[in-house]
Each structure stands twice: as structure tokens, then as C-alpha cells.
Amino acid sequence: MNHWIILPIVLPSLLAPFIVLAARYHIGIQRVLSVAGVLALIVLNLALAWQASDGTITLYQLGDWAAPFGIVVVGDRLSTMMILLTAVLAFFVLLYAIGSGWDQRGRHFHALYQFQLMGIMGAFLAGDLFNLFVFFEVLLIASYGLMIHAGGNARLRAGVQYVLYNLLGSTLFLFALGAIYAQTGTLNMADLAERVQLISADDTVGIRLAAVLLLLVFAIKGAVMPLHFWLPSSYAEAPAPVAALFAIMTKVGAYAIIRVYTMIFPPDLAVTDGLHTSWLLIAALVSLAIGMVGVLAARKLDRVVAFSVIGSMGMVMVAIALFTPAGIAAALYYMVHSTLAAAILFLVVDLTRAGRKDLALTAQPPIAGAALTAGLFFVGAIAMAGLPPLSGFIGKLLVLDASFTSDIAPWVWGTILISSLISVVGFGRAGSVVYWKAKSLAPDPEVAPEADPASPPTALSYAAVGGLIALLVAHTAFAGQVHGYTTTTAAQLFAPEPYKAVVLDTPGKLTRPEDKEKADAYGDDAKDGEDH
Amino acid sequence: MEFLVASAIGILTAAGIYLTLRLRTFPVILGIALLTYAVNVFLFASGRLMTGNPPILRDGVDVYTDPLPQALVLTAIVISFGMTAVVVMIGLGAFLGADDDHVDDPKADDAAAEDRS
């Protein structure tokens, strides 16, 4: 059995308590450990993604108990791609947190950061729904701590809203799990996929209910209208590096929808026929529109970015809701882009905050390093609004192309194109008021000194943002290769037989009775395999 | 017994939802606590209701109760317990800091006043 696939979860979960226990009062050691941990994760996840790139599905049975009785961790193309994206994003965000000194403004930033990474990695790798729930909780607990890092009244109030909303989501998740277990008697995803097929067509109430409940839970995580209300104030009030890391958390919801609704409840399944495909697309279109109108309507720069995250999640969901291989491939491409673009914008907003009284969209005296910051904002806004030459444009083209065969293609095209225009106007207005009109005001000698409590941004902060932009440029330049990869990933998702076979037929302790003979036949191989 | 358990889940959920729709932190936290109780009982019932049957294999016994929901409930109880403690602490911090325990966003003029101060 290959032990490497469990390491992205184990490594941060060991590093975090070590940071708390051994380096509690030494911010320097904490930083070194945290950066080293994230670098190790990048190398590890790169190797895992390379291993999965030829279609291999890696299975890890905890304690050697066979699925569906034991806990399994599964790495396929989609999972390894997402953990690699998480690790790379985490590295640059961590550099920014160190460069801007955010990690010193409260206690235990690095430990919570590692726990957060553990939860995200676990959610991407979990092979059964209950562990998906458990890892959701792990990442949420860590995110509660990170969300209110450095304190402040507005932040605590937003934190209360965020925690309460997510607690309700967790409760809903448990209801969905209970309903699924009552109907099928299993929570392992591969096993569920087989058993849901066997449910007779006249006894579908329970499983339809469960499918919708589960979709609601993932929609809360992915901030799909009408469940997006938690996002704007949480993301706007969270510390900037935390908000940038949270850019991957909405994608956990998108990932879960892709995983569950391609494998367990695929679109052609008779029992849940058309249940999610008919609703998700409309909700996604509305949330795309709401997000981009929010960009235009928001009165503070951080809210502008938060609403653009809702809009870009709507875009991802539109592509997912098509539930075709082309749609999923476009969604995965756009997901990577939207994660990077959102992170860049949150960090640039923080660079802007450093020299200003507040982030309201009013003309204020010029800030230090305004030209560079404004340039970075310009790049981020182009990416987020989906203008050429950056990858947002390519992603949007792919989504439009994939939706061409949809029944409501005119609506999809209309919403995407008009909302793009609105977001361009919104970003243009925000950027010109904050960065250009500043020149027209003489600096106020009385206000300026006291309005500059934060230290000016350091070179490391700019380097972190620059690194993310370089990634975005690479994502654009190698769009063909990346899209080729996501296309094969989508093909793997729509042919889940190898996944099920690997999860259910790999022998371990307590194999299913009908597999017993197969297991006996494998017996010698398994013994040889243990040495590796 | 089915009727009792089902109505208990229903009443707990209804009361929980009513309380979570209030605007103050304390009723909302109580509401979430009630909802987690409801979901724990619901998870317990998802393995079918039985009385007096063993969950572990034993000689001479034909009917077993499902042990897995009990393990799931245990995990869910621990998580919801920890989460409630966290939200109480954060809510208390927000209340002590702002002298206000409303859950919703402050009104626009309040927010403007906070920004000015």
C-alpha cells in the first residue's frame, strides 16, 4: 500500500501542535516551520499529482480496513489537482502574511494555518461522506480562529455571523448524512454510487431528499445564491491573508458538488432524475448576476472583491451545473483561475489599506507606493472581470463554449456577458476612485500621520502578490495544457468504474463477503505490496 | 416508539429553527444547540429503532442493532459540543467589545458612525 497519499493530511496535523508546543513564543521559528511545511506540501502534492496524471487512482486504507467498512483516503486526478492548488496558494499567502506582519497581530496564526490546510487537504482526499463532514469541521474550526485573528469589533461581529451560518450548514450536513445512511446503509462514496443505482424507482423520497439536502450544504460552502449571505462580510472583515486563503474554501464546496453529483447521483440516474441539474444552473446564473451587480453596488473596496468572489463562484457553478464533461473541464480551469484572482485581489486590497483611512470608495490622499499597488489592482481586476489577455477570458470562453448545447444557452450567454460588462464597470469605478482621484487631493497634514497605523508594505508582500500573478500568467500561457489536463480529469469523473473498483475491490481486513474469493486470489500480491 | 422519536425530532427542529431566526446571539446559540440535539437523535434513528439488541456479534443472537450510527452520533456530539463552546466564546467577545449582541449587520448609519470613530 502506498503511504504517500495520507501525508498531505498527516504533515500539517503534526506540524500544527508542534508549532504550538515547541515554538509558542518564537515567531521566527514558527515562520520557518510553517514555510518549510508548506514547501514540503507543495513537493509532496506535486509528486502525487504527477502520479495521478496517468489515471492511476491511489487508495489508502487506514488501519488496513477494507472499504466500505474502513476509512479510506482516495487520490485521483481531481483530488490531487485540488491539493496541489491549495498548497501553492497557501505558500504565497503565507509569504504575504509574514511580509505584512499579519501573523504577529494575534496568537497562533501559523498553527491555525496548518490546521486549516489539514482540513482542506482532508476534504479533497476523503473517500467517504462522513469524513468529508469531519474534515469540513476541521477546516471550519481552524477558519473560525483565523477569521477573528487580530480581533476588533467589526471582525468579531462578522466572525459570529460566519460561525453561526456554518454551524447551521454543518447541522444540515448531518441531517443529509442521516437520511443517506437510513436509505442505503453506507456512507462510502464508491459503495453509495453502487447502492443508489439499486434503489427502486417507486421508493425515491428519502434519497431525493438526501440529494437535495446535500446540494444545499455544498451550496452554502460554495456561496451559491440564495445561500451566499455569509460571504461578503466574512471575507471583507477577515484578515487579508486569511481571506486570500478562504478563496480555496468556496472551491471545496464546488469540489464536493462535482464529486458527489458525478459519482453518487450522476445526471442520468433515474432516481434523482433532473433534480439538481434543473435547479443548480438557475441558482448559479442568479448568483453570478448578484455577485457582479454587488461589485458595482458595493461602497467599500473589500466588499467589491468579496462580491466578485460570489460572482466567480456563480460562474464556476454555471459550468458545473451543465454536468457535461466539457462543462466540468471548463469549471476546473475557471476554478484555478478564480482562486488565484480572488487571492490576488484580497492581498492588493490589504496593500491599499495600509496607507488609507479606510477602504470606502472615496477620494483620499495618495498612498505610499500607489503606482505599483494600482498596477497590481489593475491586473487583478482584469483577471477577475475576465478581460483578455489573462486566464479569466479563456475560462469564460470555455464556459460559454461548453454551455452552447444547453437548453437555456441564450440565458446563460446573456447572463455571463452582461454580468461581465457590469463587473468591468464596477471594477473600473472602484479602481479609478481609489487610485486615480487620489492625485486630485492635496494630502491633509493633520489626518495623514494618524491615519497610517499599519507599517508600509514590505518587499516580501509585493513578492507574494507578484508570485500569484506569475502563476496566473502561467495559467494563461499554458492554457492549452491545463485545459487538456482538466478535460482528461473530467473524463475520469464521468467514467467512475475504475474509481469504484479500486476502492471496493482492494483487499484489506474485513473484505466484503462476495469479494472474499477475489481477496484470496489477491492474497499473495497484497503481502508483497506491504513492503513498499 | 417511532411516533415518539419522530415527534421529538420534529419539535426540537422546529424550536431550533425558530430560535436561530432571532436577532440576538444567545437565542441563536440555544437554537443551534437544539438543532444539534435533533440531528443527533435523527442520526441515531437512521440505523432503525430497536430496543435490547446487542450491537456486537455474539453467539446465539440473530437480531442486532446497527452500531455505526452510534459511532457517528458520538463524533457529531463531540464536534457540536466543541463548536458550541467556540461560538459562545466568539459571541461573548463580540458582545463585550461592541456592547451589543445583535447577530445581523449594524444599520448603515451605525456603520458610518463606527467608521468615523
Task: List the defining traits of the structure above.
heterodimer; A: 532 residues; mainly alpha; 2 domains; two-stranded antiparallel sheet; 22 helices; 2 strands; 72% helix; 2% strand; disordered C terminus; B: 117 residues; Helix Hairpins; 4 helices
Could you please describe the fold and organization of this structure?
- The complex is a heterodimer of chains A (532) and B (117).
- By secondary structure, chain A is an all-alpha fold.
- Chain A has helices spanning 7-22, 27-52, 77-100, 109-125, 129-147, 153-184, 189-198, 205-221, 231-237, 240-246, 249-263, 275-297, 301-321, 325-353, 370-385, 391-402, 409-436, 447-450, 459-477, 479-494, 497-505, 516-529; strands at residues 58-61, 72-75.
- Chain A has two domains: 1-269 and 498-526, no CATH class; 277-495, no CATH class.
- Chain B is mainly α.
- Chain B is built from four helices and no strands.
- Chain B has helices at 2-20, 25-45, 68-98, 108-116.
- In chain B, helix 1 (2-20) runs antiparallel to helix 2 and helix 2 (25-45) packs antiparallel against helix 3 (68-98).
- The radius of gyration of chain B is 21 Å and the shape is elongated.
- Classes of the chains: A mainly alpha (532), B mainly alpha (117).
- Chain A binds chain B through residues 130, 134, 137, 141, 144, 148, 151-154, 156-157, 159-161, 163-164, 167-168, 170-171, 174-175, 177-179, 181-182, 185, 233, 358, 360, and chain B through 20, 25, 28-29, 32, 35-36, 39, 42-43, 45-48, 66, 68-69, 72, 75-76, 79-80, 82-83, 86-87, 90-91, 93-94, 97-98, 103-106, 114-115.
Strand order of the largest sheet of chain A: 1-2
Unreliable parts of chain A: 447-453, 522-532
**Main sheet: strands, sense, barrel of chain B:** none
Integer tally of domains of chain A: 2
Q: What number is the mean pLDDT of chain A?
A: 86
Give the low-confidence spans of chain B.
none
Spatial separation of the terminal alpha carbons of chain A: 7 Å
What structural class do helix, strand and pairing data of chain A support? Answer: mainly alpha
Please report the total strand number of chain B as a whole number: 0
Query: Per CATH, what is the topology of chain B?
Result: Helix Hairpins
Domain count of chain B: 1
